[in-house]
Write a structure and sequence with these properties.
Largest sheet: 2 strands, antiparallel
Number of helices: 10
Radius of gyration: 25 Å
Number of strands: 4
Distance between the termini: 9 Å
């Protein structure tokens, strides 16, 4: 682990996304100042950073801001749970379109793709139209939303390993004296499902260091 006292100023700012919040706080201040010229800049920024610290700063914000930092993502996932947890207590089952509508109430431009990826964690590809409990959705959503880049890299790695493995069912061309090629199967056993787990682990392990 990197020594927090030995880290450079540039790395510290980048690691904790300080500039993101400074720029956003000032932008929010200027926007409010246009509506109310008497706004106190010191008080406004104090309230902004207190809201940021408490994780209450993502409601009704644009997706680009919510998605920009790990703290924002965690705060938004927590906000979603707080706002709609009564659905879970009632035991209601909702479709992914309905969950997307709920997310859009908190973030008007929230895209559908993260919701669809969340459903794929819970359901099979051919069952995405099934209803999902709130607790199952929240658990999967926070994993998908917070670790999106890491999961995408793992998925790409998996597909790359899968394509690199030649399926025993693939026909092999054996040259003959005739004009037509003779296609035969040199191996009649069924290929293993997916990729070898240890091979996948070794391939994705360096990604864990990159994300830390």
């Amino acid at each position: 682990m990197e020594d927090r006292f030995g880290i450079s100023a540039e790395k510290y700012l980048a690691k904790h996304h300080v500039l993101v919040y400074l720029e956003d706080g000032i932008a929010q201040l200027l926007e409010h100042k246009e509506e109310n010229a008497k706004v106190n800049p010191v008080k406004f920024l104090s309230e902004y950073f207190n809201s940021l610290k408490n994780g209450n700063h993502t409601m009704f914000r644009e997706y680009s801001f919510i998605h920009s930092t790990p703290h924002n993502r965690a705060s938004f996932a927590r906000l979603f749970w707080k706002c709609f947890r009564q659905i879970g207590k009632k035991g209601d089952l909702l479709s992914i379109q309905e969950y997307h509508s709920l997310l859009s109430l908190l973030c008007p431009d929230f895209p559908f793709e993260p919701v669809q990826k969340t459903a794929k964690i819970i359901l099979l590809d051919d069952a995405l139209d099934c209803l999902i409990s709130f607790s199952d959705f929240v658990y999967a959503f926070q994993v998908q939303f917070y670790y999106e880049e890491f999961l995408d890299k793992c998925s790409d790695m998996y597909q790359s390993l899968l394509q690199s493995q030649r399926s025993p069912r693939d026909p092999v061309v054996v040259p003959t004296s005739g004009s037509d090629d003779t296609r035969i199967h040199l191996n009649n056993h069924h290929p293993a499902d997916g990729v070898d787990s240890m091979q996948f682990f070794r391939a994705m392990y360096p990604l864990c260091d990159d994300e830390l």
